[in-house]
Design a protein that fits this description.
The chain is 24% helix and 29% strand. The protein is built from 18 helices and 47 strands. Bound molecules: 2-acetamido-2-deoxy-beta-D-glucopyranose (3 copies).
């Protein structure tokens, strides 16, 4: 590549990207890394490796430990980074970025160069395998790898090389002028599960944390300062939920399957249209992946005699070929909505300095004939290049009389242009990523004599990939014409032009404290507003706390921002995102245009201010504004979570309690969602709760066709009673299965007992004793009621933390006795009815029988009263322990909450908080979901509000745990 200096600021630099295995938890220093056709081997062990790209220049060193810890918590074993050679050797540089496409373009010389690079790399003897992204002809021993949104169909060029996915795109970059792309977590997880089920053994998320293009290091032309990438860790270093959590759950499921994955190739079967089953069966392990590729329909797959429900466009993972522990389309992790809140320290107090248009006869300009390519002149020392020329206008020009100025037309290769005539801004124009070229065409005001034409051409990034960079021009390359003169059109293209790199303020280093003292700044009523080429400065104190910070630049146009001399990047909120955003389904093949947000808003409004660049006080903030803006509208904001939500389904596969499932002790575990706020926040408000079929997404949920109307009250009540909740468990459920057993199966069962009983006793001379009158028949309703009682109570439950264990036994007694009384009454009634109906009896017997009936009825009524008395021991709540599916469950029927019981809601408080509150939800209902969202707010000071946990409540939790063991 000839133009060496041109490729300095590139997205990523690699020809051969050595997998940098930064072992997060490695204890031994020496390790051997090799590979075979299945996977990378570490110390002779095949491994499924999960990696994530975190680019070191896109965050501050102070953020790295936290980012790496979050990556580890998210289930990653590898951190990947490109080497940003432009940062290490700013000039001259060299471009090496996905060389494959260049080689296709230029042919033999490209192949020769690639081979030279391979020999050089292998010759280094690093002791670890080398890989080449997208290099299909990578010679041995180099592993060729895949980059893309999906890579399941990729195969390496030799069957003894492992199948590796070096860039699994988690989202896409934002461009100035474009909307913000996002990729649904369900589809990302789906693509990874498909890759793994098709022999994949290494995956690297690009990006796991995208970060920020600080300074002028755009990732390419027109790429925004934010390089957030919709990554699992957001630009600010906060978890992006549910993406981070959903991938964490996916990684758990993959790790559980690892023994089978590394020791067998999959056997593939197709149980139906769009359905696929992959089974990895080795001697000692078995893992299965069940896939439904249909974009609209859910499917049921019968696999090894069990049935599995698969939502559209999803894969379920069964690490033991039995239990589905994860489905890519069922998100268990919480959804967090982030918000930007202005810090309270007040508005900035600004001073301004007006830069000025340069003219051709200024001292430090450089003259040439004709128009020069911009980067060739600036050498990227600045975004700005002045193109300066003079235009002589004769006094007899017609336009001077009729007032209609001539039209100046400037054709530029990009990227933005400001036109000054005699020092006055005449207009601006800019291109876009898909077409960086621009044309400025406007009537301009010229006067008789010499006119100064000053064109300020602005670069926004350097190209990031592809071949023939020498053809990628920037700047005013012409033609430049003036139309509407007496002579017609005057072509200015080839006349004498003068050049000046950068703005005057840049030359004076106005972005630094020392440089800024070299000019006079004005303030108050003299403060420049909506003026082009203006510098603004102020100082501010760092806000307390650890929340990430940003500048809200929405009142500004385009320029650059520095804090304490460090550039936080280019701002360009004046560039509004074009396009139609609409809604986006996770199902169906994803591309970077499919899911977009922010249409009609600034492409980028907020600009990350790293905490570590701030001092406690006196931070020096400088804004260079090209277009003109209102600096008083700039504010410092902190990024926090505003709302957290969870939306979960019964039958949702979960890795939680995997050991229970695997042990065979239970066949189903209750899925649970966990809601948590950041440090220093507490749950302040429940915004929405629906047990049923809620619709919508986090922030805009609404009730669906099925909704328990007390869902909200139950949660609200707990919050009222425990304003400083740390952990709340909200299993919301309704065991339909149990109720169905009670009402359908029990009568059948009892009837068959009854039939058995009369077969053996054919002694009755007349008609057989009917079922209704038998004690089998009499058991029917009481059993139904008893079971329903437990089922419904299990389902619906609201607990006040104080009263748990005291009421366990009375509740059991009450329920049992009530059922027994009902049984006696039924049986007695059946016996007597039968007697009256079939026995041939005289009047005396009839009277005696009738009084016995009455007597028995009274006795049974008395028993009923006793049962009630037992129950009366707890006027507030009925409580019971019951064992269902091997788990001990606390069960309460609250007097005030019968409605909740009926519909199924229960809540259990575990502890009280000072910082970081967690709300846990689980549910128990078929094909119904539950949604709970909570509104966290801050606690000040965080440590002073701890409240001791009630005793009774903790006991309940401990008992429950003991039973599980
Ligand atoms: C997995 O790899 C084996 C061996 O290369 C191959 O035979 C098989 O077709 C692959 N299976 C899938 C699903 O890609
Ligand atoms: C860059 O500038 C040099 C002179 O400094 C000139 O020789 C060369 O042709 C220019 N290249 C382009 C692409 O304009
Ligand atoms: C009624 O029948 C019982 C035997 O079934 C007998 O002992 C009794 O004397 C009878 N009473 C009358 C009034 O017939």
């Amino acid at each position: 590549m000839g133009s060496m200096w041109k490729m300095l600021r590139i997205k990523r630099l690699l020809l051969l990207s050595a997998a940098l295995f930064l072992w997060v938890c490695s204890s031994s220093v020496t390790a051997s890394v090799t590979y075979d056709g299945k996977s990378i081997l570490i110390n002779g062990q095949r491994r499924i490796l999960i990696s994530g790209s975190i680019h070191y220049p896109r965050s501050t060193p102070e953020m790295w430990p936290d980012l790496i810890q979050k990556a580890k918590d998210g289930g990653l074993n590898v951190i990947q980074t490109y080497v940003f050679w432009n940062g290490h050797e700013p000039s001259p540089g060299q471009i090496e970025n996905e060389y494959g496409p260049v080689e296709w373009e230029i042919g033999a010389p490209g192949t020769a160069y690639m081979k030279w690079a391979v020999n050089m790399a292998v010759g280094l003897g690093t002791g670890v395998p080398w890989i080449m992204c997208k290099q299909e002809d990578a010679p041995d021993p180099i592993i060729d790898t895949c980059n893309g949104f999906y890579c399941e169909d990729f195969t390496p060029n030799k069957n003894y090389k492992p199948k590796m996915w070096t860039e699994a795109w988690t989202g896409w970059y934002t461009e100035f002028g474009g909307p913000i792309p996002y990729r649904p977590a369900e589809d990302l997880a789906f693509s990874v599960a498909r890759f793994i089920q098709n022999n994949g053994s290494f995956i690297n998320y690009y990006m796991y944390h995208g970060g920020t293009n600080f300074g002028r290091t755009a990732a390419g032309l027109f790429i925004a300062t934010s390089y957030d990438y919709d990554a699992p860790i957001d630009e600010y270093g906060l978890l992006r939920e549910p993406k981070w959590g959903h991938l964490r759950d996916l990684h758990k499921a993959i790790k559980l399957s690892e023994p089978a994955l590394v020791s067998a190739y999959p056997t593939v079967t197709w149980p139906g249209k769009n359905l696929e089953v992959h089974v990895f069966q080795s001697k000692s392990a078995c893992a299965a992946f069940l896939a439904n590729y249909d974009t609209n329909s859910a499917a049921k797959i019968t696999f090894q005699n069990a049935q599995y429900d698969l939502p559209p466009w999803s894969v379920s993972i069964l690490p033991d070929c039995k239990n589905a522990v994860f489905n890519t389309a069922r998100v268990s992790s919480q959804i967090s909505q982030m918000k930007m809140t202005p810090v309270s320290s007040g508005a900035f107090s600004w001073q301004s300095y007006s830069d000025e248009a340069v003219s051709a006869d200024d001292s430090d300009t450089y003259a040439a004939n004709g128009l020069l390519e911009q980067i060739n002149v600036t050498r990227d020392a600045s975004d700005y290049l002045w193109y300066l020329t003079d235009v002589n206008i004769q006094p007899n020009e017609g336009f001077l009389k009729n007032g209609q100025g001539p039209v100046l037309t400037v054709m530029s290769a990009g990227h933005a242009l400001h036109v000054f005539i005699n020092g006055q801004l005449s207009g601006s124009s800019y291109g876009a990523l898909e077409n960086p070229k621009l044309t400025f065409s406007n009537n301009v005001k010229l006067r008789a004599g010499i006119n100064k034409i000053s064109l300020l051409s602005v670069a926004v990034g350097l190209p990031n990939g592809g071949s023939h960079y020498e053809t990628w021009n920037t700047g005013v390359l012409g033609p430049v014409t003036l139309k509407g003169l007496n002579e017609g059109t005057r072509d200015l293209t080839n006349q004498k032009w003068s050049y000046k790199v950068g703005l005057k303020g840049e030359g004076l280093s106005l972005n630094t404290l020392s440089g800024s003292s070299s000019v006079e700044w004005v303030e108050g009523s003299l403060l420049a507003q909506k003026q082009p080429l203006t510098w603004y400065k102020t100082t501010f104190n760092a806000p307390g706390g650890n929340d990430p910070l940003a500048l809200d630049m929405s009142s500004m146009g385009k320029g650059q921002v520095w804090i304490n001399g460090e550039s936080i990047g280019r701002h360009w909120p004046g560039y509004i995102a074009r396009g139609n955003c609409g809604s986006c389904s996770y199902a169906g093949t994803f591309n970077e245009k499919k899911c977009l947000s922010n249409c009609g808003e600034s492409s980028q409004r907020w600009y990350h201010v790293p905490r570590s660049w701030l001092k406690p006080s006196g931070n020096f903030l400088v804004v260079l504004e090209e277009w003109g803006g209102d600096p008083t509208g700039i504010s410092l904001v902190r990024r926090t979570s505003g709302s957290v939500c969870a939306d979960i389904y019964e039958g949702q596969p979960t890795t939680k309690n995997w050991h229970l499932l695997a042990s065979g002790k239970v066949d189903k575990v209750q899925p649970k969602a966990q809601l948590s706020c950041a440090q220093g926040q507490k749950i302040s408000q429940i915004k929405f709760a629906s047990y049923g079929l809620p619709q919508g997404t986090c922030g805009s949920f609404h009730e669906g066709s099925c909704h328990a109307h007390k869902s909200y009250d139950a949660l609200e009540k707990v919050l009222e009673e425990n304003p400083h909740l740390r952990h709340v468990m909200v299993p919301v459920g309704f065991t339909l299965t149990t109720a169905v057993v009670a009402w359908l199966v029990i009568p059948l069962l009892l009837k068959s007992y009854y039939n058995e009983s009369i077969k053996g006793t054919q002694v009755t001379p007349s008609a057989p004793f009917p079922y209704k009158a038998s004690y089998w028949g009499a058991l029917e309703d009481p059993l139904r009621c008893l079971i329903s009682f437990f089922a419904l109570s299990l389902a619906g439950y609201l607990i006040a933390p104080l009263i748990v264990s005291n009421y366990v036994l009375p509740a059991w007694k009450g329920a049992m006795m009530a059922s027994f009384v009902l049984f006696l009454q039924r049986w007695k009634r059946g016996v007597f009815a039968h007697a009256f109906a079939v026995m041939v009896i005289n009047e005396t017997d009839r009277t005696n029988l009738a009084s016995l009936d009455t007597l028995l009825s009274n006795a049974i009524f008395g028993l009923g009263l006793l049962a009630l008395a037992a129950a009366a021991g707890f006027s507030m709540l009925y409580i019971a322990w019951i064992t269902i599916a091997g788990e001990l469950v606390v069960l309460l029927v609250g007097k005030d909450n019968l409605q909740n019981v009926k519909y199924g809601c229960y809540l259990r408080t575990l502890e009280l908080v000072q910082v970081g509150d967690i709300l846990q939800i689980s549910y128990h209902k078929m094909n119904c979901g539950v949604v709970v969202s909570a509104h966290p707010s801050r606690i000040f000071p965080p440590s002073s509000s701890a409240v001791p946990a009630p005793r009774g409540y903790k006991e309940a939790a401990i008992k429950s745990l003991n039973m599980k063991r």
